[in-house]
Amino acid sequence: MEYFVQQLINGLTLGAIYGLIAIGYTMVYGIIGMINFAHGDIYMIGAFLSIICFLILGAIGVTFIPLALMIVLIISVVLTAAYGWTVERVAYRPLRGSFRLAPLISAIGMSIFLQNYVQLAQGARNKPLQPIISGGMTVMEGNGFAVYLSYLQIVIVIITIVLMAGFTLLITRTSLGRAQRACEQDQRMAALLGVNVDRTISLTFVAGAALAAVAGLMVTLYYGVVDFFIGFLAGIKAFTAAVLGGIGSLPGAMLGGVLIGLIEAFWSAYFSVEYKDLAAYAVLVLVLIFRPSGLLGRPEIEKV
Amino acid sequence: MSDAIATAPVPSGAPPLLMVEHLTMRFGGLLAVDDLSFSAADAEITSIIGPNGAGKTTVFNCLTGFYKPTIGRLALTAPHGRFLLEQMEGFRIPQKARVARTFQNIRLFPAMSVLENLIVAQHNKLMRASAFTLAGLVGLPRYGRAERQAIELARYWLDKTELTVQADAPAGSLPYGSQRRLEIARAMCNEPVLLCLDEPAAGLNARESAELNALLLSIKREQQIAILLIEHDMGVVMGISDHIVVLDYGRKISDGTPEEIRSDPAVIKAYLGEEEEAELPPEVAQDLEVRT
Amino acid sequence: MVADAPVATKRFDLLPVFKEAVLAALLTLALTIGLIGFRTLDVGGSLSFTTRFGDVAMACAVVLLGRLGLALTRSGRPEPTLVGSLAAALGLAFLLLTADPESAAGGWLPFDSAIVNWILVFIALGLAVQAGLVLRSQQPAVLASRTQRDALMDRVGAQVQQVALWLGPALLLAAVAMPMMPFADRRLIDIGTLVLTYIMLGWGLNIVVGLAGLLDLGYVAFFAVGAYSYALLAQYYDASFWVCLPFAGLMAASFGLLLGFPVLRLRGDYLAIVTLGFGEIIRIVLLNWWWFTGGPNGIGSIPRPSFFGLPFERARSEADVTFHSVFGLDFSSGHRVMFLYYLILALALITNFFTLRIRKLPIGRAWEALREDETASRALGINPTNTKLTAFAIGAMFGGFGGSFFAARQGFVSPESFTFIESAVILAIVVLGGMGSQVGVVLAAVLLIGVPEFFRELEAFRMLAFGAGMVAIMIWRPRGLLAHREPTVRLHRRRGMWGPP
After folding, report:
1. Among B109, B143, B168, whose Cβ lies nearest the Cβ of C492?
2. Which of A176, C122, C277, C419 is the most buried (most CB within 10 A)?
3. Buried b (16+ CB within 10 A) or exposed e, C248-280
4. Does the pLDDT at position C115 exceed 90?
């Protein structure tokens, strides 16, 4: 029981991170119907930028943790968002109206490019970081097993909930959200009604990248180690989460993220750690084959 | 499996080629086609007309296996067998029952040449001739013969549709009117017993429209096949149809010869609304249809 | 309106041009300050960093000037761009060619890395060429419009197709003759073998991606199945390469059928992701099923292929029947290297001839028809699932052949060789060469695999170039550089572009 609760906590934390990345996939898919394969690498860049920020802050002597956290959050979000914007502008915008698989191939190219750019700029080795937020509490004890809830896990879950709430407001209440939903339905009509489609799509990428940057920051804190390749696997898992939840649906992305996090945690705890990535891939394949519209998505009707 | 359906003997009373009975198609809450029954005979042109959204294309999609009808029987009785189309998988309908169709928004293979489009239409015949690729790979002469025959059939239809000159150009590079004709030629290369044309005159000018009429009449005359036509262009419909079915909101409101349809008050009501009494001249009907 | 046009003097506002350039430079600053400006260093277990602000400033300056030049060209003032970029390119090239990077003159170079500097030279040259073209045609941005560019590249593609009629045999001849040339040392033959392996895999994948239009991101899985089939059969049953080769192909093809069956009805992008998933699943299983596959350690000491039964070994006694003793040659380890080269050349040629042949058969045309329009294909009686499955399985089969060759050549297989990156590399070769173009695959493989092998310094930049190249091709010419489709059957004899005018 205690072991189970511990896995539940770990899975939820992981799921929060996957969910944040998944939102980027789901929003982009919703608005331009493409799989932004490079999104995982945007998240990796977010993680790198936060680790660099922490180092700089450490060097100039900012030691008050909440302040440091705020600064790192802002800087890495802004700089990662710049990457999100650029990727869209350079690799996807010229491809609107091209053949169906062109954006996906371009995205794969972008993903390879970003990975190798970071590898060249920062080296191929793991980047370890000293724990920034340490400590925690024992919430439950029994059978010789103590359920440990770290403060970091609390921070991660709280930030995720706050961001999700803010984001839902953004989509449902603001004119940007309205423009975005309009573009999802019909880009040409939206343009005719005065919505700046290019700008709306750009902002979607910026928002997705910003959330990915937050996820990157969290992962930096949670695992304390980053390398240039983390984006691939995290990207696949987050995409799986987005598909599982129903691609195009924001609550679906979050739900999917949490489910993937839980599946991974329980799978590693009860089956085998070696095959833990297999779980995500198996879910991905099974969902796409048997229910491509996901849990909260709507099925597509074929038009002739 | 679908071959089993074909074993039922053709009844002596010679039923019409296509019998549609109680066809109903429901999408969620929307009733697109509601209890529709009609028939189409060999060597006749049967038109399905009706305002936009009347469910005409849905009927086609049911006939050609893109949709599974909610209720209804679609029976095709041809010399080569009897088929229940509603039970067949989409690609088997052209393959076994030999029903070919064209699309409202032209669907060619744009990067392939005009001739290749017509050869692809003879896929199943050629697959057999190439012994499912094996004979073709080793270069047996029987495949070569079959391919030459296929090219001859293609050439026949290219000549008929006046596309011979452009035979080796990519299909996507043809002008709009030629693409429409090519789609009909491609369907004919499929050697159908029933040809379903979804708005073949859409976007054509008056001259091209007249040429289309002549082409369809000659197909009917020479091939003796049944043609099912969805069309808004009343000039085409009234000029060449042997038999017209009028749909409105998924229901059949009239069924008969062009003369009968022209004077049917239910049709006039559907097209012009309640208060109009006058007979519907073809030009008005044409104008009323705003094409998208 | 008409009266205005001739007298309309080019009113020209510098301000927006500058604004655009400055914005681009600021964006560059945002992109580079974090990842280029600071370099994390791992010192004794803890992380520290150094700064490289010079590079950041230089990058911003380059972007500022480049963007300025581009904007000037686009707004119809190509002269300063032409002069400036030409001067920059020539100056930089001169410095690069003459100056030793260690010496004082090396300090004038903008970046430390010679490759980055050379890229800069080419970018400047590109700007100059564009400006020159605009200047000559007297109209702004001559190649800016997509249709113009496509028309130009179509002509180039068609010409290459013409050239390919003799280029193909010429390349083949060169490939056959290469190992016998006096300059062919072992390294060159090894690189040739590697390039040919990728050419074969590219041709195999081309069936799936280029002809059938199915984006397969897990192609390397079939390569792995082929490699492990041979490795395991050799390990457990002592089977020889020649027995295993067909079996490996069969095995890979069955995997293709097995994996393809549930997924081939999915839409293009989902299909791509599912194939990626399958590829990774196979890799993870190979990695963790250690008692069968050796796990991460892989399988070693795989027997090398023999010359149809004659091993490439030194004959220890008169009774030993080996390759060199039968043919009366002196023993040389080069024989095997050469044999492997010819083996993969033969395998690649089989793949090529098969593809060329099957394109002209109904199944090949059906693949292309499905790629073009699945709905229309179905309406013509083509069974989409079966037709796609054959493409998938045949592509997988060639992957399997390639894999068993790979295992035989390396003498060792481990899951590390079969990562997603490998799939991406093969895909990049197909995409860059032009989906469906056989010559394109050759050129792309030589360019992307062969050239970096020769210039080791390029190695680090290779994947970077792959990524950038894939993006650029999709933007510039999505059907691939040399994509020009010849019909598989003609009604008229070839005259001019198509048919009589």
Report:
1. B168
2. C277
3. bbebbbebbeebbbebbebeebbbbbbbbbbbb
4. no
